[in-house]
Design brief:
The protein is an alpha/beta fold. It has a domain at 3-84 and 150-227: Rossmann fold. It contains 10 helices and 10 strands. It has a 6-stranded mixed beta sheet, sandwiched between helices. It has a 4-stranded antiparallel beta sheet with strand order 2-1-4-5, with helices on one face. Strand 9 (198-203) and strand 10 (206-212) form a beta hairpin. The chain is globular and about 45 Å long.
Length: 230
C-alpha cells in the first residue's frame, strides 16, 4: 500500500476527534471518505498530511512510518495535499505557483498548463487575482505537477461550477491511471462516486463502513441513508 493509516487518534485540545481510524490506499486507486460536516474528515486529512499531530496510531507512506515526520518532509517523500479552500501563493503568478511545487516526473509545468487551459490563459497573472474557482483549479494542478505517490484531497470540488468539477474528475482519473494513490474527502456524493474505486463512510471520527464503488453506485439511496441525507 502506498498509504496506510493504522488506529489513528487525534485530539483538538482536550476533545478527541479521531477514534482509531484505519484505512489503506493502494497505488492506482482512489478511496473516497464520505461523511457529514463535523465527522472528522478534514482532521483526518490534516493528520495524515502532518498538519495536525496524531495522539495515537500510525501513518505509513510506502511502508515507512511518517507519523512524527513534518509535513514538508512528507511532501518531499511523495505526499501531496489539495487543501480545502483556495490556498494559493497570492503574490506569485500562476506559473510560479506551479513551479515551486514541481517535482521530477511525467507532469511538468507546461503539460499541466496544457491540461488546464483556464490556467494557461492566466499563466502570468498573480494567483491572488484569480476567481475562487480558478484558484481551486490551480491548487489541484499544483498537486499534479508535484508527481506524488499519493494525493490527499480535502473537498476539491468545493466552489467549482460543473465544468471545472469535470476538470478535477479528469485529473483524478489521470492520477489513478498513472498509479498514484488518492485519498479523497468529499461531501458531494455524486462527484466522489464518479472518481472513487472504493468508498468509506466516516461517522463521529471513525470509519464505520467500506465498500467497492460499484456497490455504492448500485445503491445510492443506501449511501444517502448512511450519510443522513434526504
Amino acid at each position: 500500500m502506498v498509504l496506510e493509516v493504522r488506529d489513528l487518534t487525534t485530539h483538538h485540545g482536550s476533545g478527541q476527534v479521531l477514534y482509531g481510524v484505519s484505512l489503506a490506499v493502494g497505488a492506482g486507486e482512489c478511496l473516497a471518505v464520505l461523511g457529514r460536516n463535523g465527522m472528522g474528515k478534514t482532521t483526518l486529512v490534516h493528520t495524515v498530511a502532518g498538519l495536525h499531530p496524531a495522539t495515537g496510531g500510525q501513518v505509513l507512506l510506502d511502508e515507512v512510518d511518517v507519523t512524527t515526520v513534518a509535513a514538508e518532509q512528507r511532501n518531499r517523500a511523495g505526499m501531496a495535499l489539495v487543501p480545502q479552500g483556495h490556498r494559493v501563493f497570492g503574490s506569485l503568478t500562476v506559473t510560479e505557483n506551479l513551479a515551486v511545487a514541481a517535482r521530477p516526473g511525467p507532469h511538468d509545468v507546461e503539460s499541466v498548463l496544457d491540461r488546464f487551459p483556464i490556467l494557461r490563459t492566466r499563466s502570468g497573472q498573480r494567483a491572488g487575482n484569480l476567481s475562487g474557482g480558478q484558484q481551486q483549479v490551480l491548487v489541484v494542478a499544483r498537486a499534479l505537477v508535484a508527481n506524488p505517490a499519493v494525493v490527499l484531497m480535502d473537498e476539491p470540488s468545493e466552489g467549482l461550477d460543473p465544468r471545472r468539477v469535470g476538470m478535477v474528475v479528469r485529473m483524478v482519473d489521470d492520477l489513478v491511471a498513472a498509479g498514484t494513490g488518492v485519498l479523497l474527502v468529499e461531501q458531494r456524493v455524486g462527484f466522489a462516486l464518479r472518481v472513487a474505486t472504493r468508498v468509506a463512510i466516516m461517522e463521529r471520527g471513525t470509519i464505520t463502513r467500506e465498500m467497492d464503488v460499484a456497490d455504492a453506485r448500485g445503491d445510492p439511496e443506501a449511501i444517502h441513508d448512511l450519510l443522513g441525507l434526504s
